[in-house]
Write a structure and sequence with these properties.
The chain has 274 residues and is mostly helical. 70% of the residues lie in helices and 0% in strands. Helix 3 packs across helix 4 and helix 7 packs parallel to helix 10.
Amino acid sequence: MTHSTTDSAAFSVPAPDVGDGVLPGASAVSGATGGAAVATRAARSAGAPTARRSVGAGAGRTPVRAATHKAGARGALKGQQTRAAIVDAALGLAAHVGLEGLSIGAVAEVMHMSKSGVFAHFGSREELQISVVREYHQRFEEEVFFPAVAGPRGLPRLRAMFANWMQRTSIEIEAGCIYISGAVEFDDRPGPVRDALASSVKTWLSAMHRAVVLAKNEGHLRADADEHQLTFEIHGLILALHYEARFLKTPGSVERALAGFERIVREHLPPVAA
C-alpha cells in the first residue's frame, strides 16, 4: 500500500535508541575471519595454491570467509527474529499487567528463555518497556492510521480514522490499551518510558487534528470550527468508552461513543450540508 508522504509523515515516530546487545557468535565470526586470513597468507608463502578471487559481491573472499559471512548473516537474522518474538510476547503481557508489570523475568518465563537470554537483546527493563511502546504504536498506525489515509481527504478520512480507532478500541476493551494504562502508570513519573508514551499519543492526536483541518479545508466542516476543540472531544469519546466499557462494564458504551462522534460532526457541518 502506498501512503501519502505528507500525511504519513505526520504520524511517523523515530525509532527508539535501543541497543540489540551483542549477537551470539560475534566473537567467533571475528576469530574465524582472522584465522582464514592467516591461513591464506601462510599458504601463499609456501607456494601452495589458494582460492581464486571471484569478481562481484564476493570478490576477495576465500570459501572459509564466505561461509563465515553467511553464518554471521544467519546469526544476525536469528537475533532479530528472537528480539521481535520477545517484543510480541512482552506486548501481550503488558496488555494485561501494564507496562509497570513487565519484567525481564516475566517475559523470559513466557518465552521459555533464560533471563540472561532476554537481557542480551535489551539490556534493561526500561529498554524492553520502550520497545513495547514502539511496537504498539507501529501496530496502531498500521491498523488505524494508514488505512484511513488511503481514502479521500476530508470528512470521509476523519470518519475512517474514528471508525478504525473504535474497532481497535472494541478489541482492547478486553485486552487493555497501552496508551491509556500507560498514562495512568507514568503520568507523574518522568523518564524515557513516559517520554515514549507521550510522544506516541501526541503523534496520533496530531494526525487526528490534521484530519480535522483537512475536513475544514475541503469544506466538509464549518470554516469557523475549532479544530483543537473537535480533536479534544473526539479523544474524550475514546477515553470515556474505555472507562465505561472496560471498568464500569456499562452496556451500550460503544453505541454511545459512535453517537457522540456523529453529534460532534453534525454540529460542525456547514449550513449547506446541514
